[in-house]
């Protein structure tokens, strides 16, 4: 019984689908080499005879060649599928490697981005605070009109057990902080001191 797994062409050292003339020539050459009378191997010689007889039968050769063609086409299609699958696997592997590489790099990018945002936030806050400080300094540094008396006034109190104060003693005690416009006594232990500008009052808060 012969199947497509028995490669008669290979036994004769021929490529598949070789013609009849090539089969005859190959058999003559191989039989001279492996003939038992020439010291060759009996089994090998018998195998050569089977191959040549099979391939020199037109009907059997036609059927055999057709099966080989089908097998060859199937092998070709399988090979193409494997190549396609191999290319797809390679693409998937490359894609996975790319994603993994990105994942490894991402924390560094995220950290750098967070650092940049943090620096920007700090810088913005510093600018904002500087602007606010300038605005406060501008408002407090300028002379305040009499209508802004609350901003220019401070209230002071003391304990009578440690002594008493008068307009003169209070002016002497607070004039180093700025020019005093008026001292209003509010009783034996308290008074209101009104400065010429609000900045002087701020120093005493």
UniProtKB/TrEMBL annotation:
Domain J: 7-68
SUPFAM superfamilies registered for this protein in UniProt: Chaperone J-domain
Record-given protein name: J domain-containing protein
Any one GO CC term of the record: cytoplasm
GO biological process: spliceosomal complex disassembly
InterPro entries for the chain: DnaJ_domain, J_dom_sf, Pre-mRNA-splicing_ERAD
Cell compartment(s), UniProt: Cytoplasm; Nucleus
The keyword Calcium is annotated on this UniProt entry: no
Annotated organism of origin: Aphanomyces astaci (Crayfish plague agent)
Gene3D superfamilies for this protein: DnaJ domain (1.10.287.110)
Lineage, top ranks: Eukaryota, Sar, Stramenopiles, Oomycota, Saprolegniomycetes
PANTHER family (UniProt xref): DNAJ HOMOLOG SUBFAMILY C MEMBER 17
Superkingdom of the source species: Eukaryota
Entry keyword set: Chaperone, Cytoplasm, Nucleus
Transmembrane segments: none
CDD domains referenced in this protein's UniProt entry, alphabetically: DnaJ (cd06257)
